[in-house]
Amino acid sequence: MNAYGCRHGAEHEGEEAKVAVRNVRRDANTQLKDMLKKHDVPEDEEKRAQDEVQKLTDKAVADIDRMIAEKEKELMAV
Fold this sequence. Notes:
Structural class: mainly alpha
Helix content: over 70%
Radius of gyration: 18 Å
Number of strands: 0
Shape: elongated
Oligomer: single chain
């Protein structure tokens, strides 16, 4: 496989990882909304938790983007 093919593979794996992170976010937010409906958590706490989930999602996506960029740079050097 040439460098382009490897780079494309790294991009694909990175995109799949970002989709997985976003799926976890969706599931967490769904659980929070269900807890709110059942009155297991106050509305302000649900909002705070959703904000925290978003911050963690943003950090994970940024980390994945950084890793992809590093891998692409490494592959282009080969």
